[in-house]
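Two proteins follow. First one:
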Amino acid sequence: MTPSAQRYADRRASSFAAARLREGPDLFPESTSVRPGSELAWQSRWFAGHFGRDFTSANGQAVRIVQFGWWNHGAGPDFRDCAVEIDGVLRKGSIELDLDAADWEGHGHAGNPAYEDVVLHLYLFEDTNATRFTRTAAHREIPQVRLDPGSVPPGAVSIPPARPGRCLPAIRQLPPDDWLTFMEDAARFRMDRKARRWLRVASVHGEDEAWWQGFADAFGYARNQLPMTVLSQRLPLRWLQKRLPDAEAILFGVAGFLDGSALSHGDEPTRQYLRGLWESWWRYRAEFAPGEPHAPITWTLSGTRPTNHPQRRTAALAVVAASWKRIRPFLSPAAFDSRKAIALLASLEHPYWCRHYTLASAQASRPLALIGRSRAAECMANLCFPILLSERPELWEDYVRIPAAPVSERLRRAGLRLFGSEAATSDAITRLWQQQALLQIYDDFCMQDASDCARCPFPEQLASSSS
């Protein structure tokens, strides 16, 4: 670990127990305006704090909301990374808000592992003649709180994704050079951690498989990183390389995308494309089709941009496999050139997927980049630079010149928390390395805090570092 990364690691370790540090999810809209009366409207009022913080559960427990978390508009519980005190015991997890107490069962949450971390179930209405319990798939009982609809004002509200934290004044008062040093320490720490993860995979499966799984993870974005990684693990690169003519079909089949429905409902280019895949897939179907003993890969589709649909990302992975002999030389420390590597990834094409968003979509009116320069640059920043920097320290100068990537929802929340506004964030964060540093700080401090900022040590650390 570099001295810079070690400085950040020491600061990080002194703030929270290392066992609690973890990655946060990546989802939150910039603002939310909703119709009164809908479930979204009640969720909006809840998140705005209109119901208050203190409640009594259905079985008489004292419930206090310490931290409202962030509002999840995708699959899974409604509010993530919350902190709730129940009879004085702090619990961290998710909160689900339903219109009716029966919706927990009616919506299938009871059997859905994605709801296993829910620590509080909120609802507004119930059948007083029925007694209902909220339980997870593991049969853990979840405290229930009935909210009083008459206790809040009517009408829709507009809510920012985050509010400024206590660290905002400390950041503003910190000398600019000190803040840049702190940011560099955080960025280097993040890179070092990614490199160590990659090295662990390489030690088990070899470097090529580690690169293969790394590309799959990068193509998965925040919502589908795990499914893409599982796909690359089930179909190792060395195995696919021996079956390149069939590789794309096998990837799509194992991913669960060859169910036959688009063969009859898709447009003519789609039907032709799928017929070609099926001509290969049928020979492997019995061995690899989702189902026992191969658990189906579960994809997250809600909230996913069309260009990031898992089917397009699977196609990109297939093209990487087919182009591996061209790509692999750029991944060696001696030959690595980020500009050439970005240009190569951005140039990869697919005759079908450069005109379609999904197997069910109509043909696009304009060509679509399979990977694109922005995603290619992020692959370099998140995968290649962290791994190669230890052997070529001078690559840091290339890394810090990479422009900022499109702002994710997690970056937007982090920027509002630390800088107070999107305009201030745009002024302060102009390079991709700064985005990575901001995410690391947000993960290590904001996401680990369970006091709604009140007891987070980050502001005091900043103040002491400048004294």
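Second one, unrelated to the first:
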Amino acid sequence: MRVRLPPLPLRPGTGPGVAAAALALACAEFVRSGLYGAYLTQASPELLGLPEREAVAVAATAFSAHFLTDTLCRGPAGALIARYGARRVLLAGSALSLAALALLPGVHIGWELILMAAVHALGFAALWPAAMNLTAGAARPGYQGRALTLVSMCVMPMIGAGFLLLGALAPGGTTLVPLLVLGVQALGLIAVLGVPGRGPRLAAAAPTPRRRRMRVAARALAPLLPAALMQTLTLTLLGPLLFTLARELGLDFWGMVVMLVVGGAAAFGSMPLTGRVADRGRARLALVVGYSLIGLALGTIAGTPPVWALYGLAAVAGLGYAFVAPGWAALVAGTLPEAERPAAWGAVMTVENAGTALGPLVGAFAYRHLGTPGPFLVGAVLALLTAGGYTLFRHAFRQDAQPV
């Protein structure tokens, strides 16, 4: 008896190009997460010859400079992709990133490290808009949410691998780590050669004046920007506090790991079904259900339940995320006009990054003033507000995708 596997959510012939873009993005994220999230904070005293506290402050400033530059440049990077095609822009960006990272072994002054991080971000900024736009264009009709989520989920393990591996190699690794970083970044540059110059050709249509096209794009983009901010703000406010909150909820390290595994398994296991809901013209419904489940889970955790209940609540939150990820991908892909999608996607990602930067600050503020329940309570309120916004302003989102 043959087992029939589900079809890939990509149109025939587009898989290699999408895979190349995903590999380039995964390599770049491996480098970024490991370098700024784990390596520099440990190695900066030796690299810069400074006392530990001063060196860590410089490393944190370099991370902020990288993140801010990436945030500000995603919109312009998307516009360049729309004009020159993905391959040219990604080749230039990946080469610039490689050149910046090649300076790492010779960096011994704080401002040099900060400048290197900013130049690295200039090259990095085009990767996410290019990968998402290429995937959306390559997706089979009615499969955009699942295709975009598949690419994002394939990249995520490399983010964790970079953080863990470079963090483990950081003590005494001032020679090995730069070589590893350059090797992985070079692999990403080679992968870009497989990215198509431009996405699939659009169907022939009557010429439209540029000003009118920009007005249409702006109207489609307007409701997505506050939604993008609320989503990343909600989903990132617990991140830096995770170890602290886990202890205060009665979880040890391995208990927290098991809780995360339960949540991840619930998300990955249910995503084929939740993605189908999102891609059948019900992206908003998927988002409303997803954020309602996340709000329910966070609100219940704010009541500090017994430890055994936390694992069930992690599964509820994971199921909520399984609705949110493909729902958001399908909504963005179906709302943005196809001709202006690269630049518009860059603008959406700029706002997403702003929410990612603000989330930890909001979480820390809530923890300081409300204690352990604070971040969960604020997260629950934000999640339910986001779900309510998708319900109240449902007519603001124009969906091009048709049910299948």
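SUMMARY FIELD: Confidence is low (pLDDT under 50) at residues 202-206, 400-404. The two ends are 28 Å apart (CA to CA).
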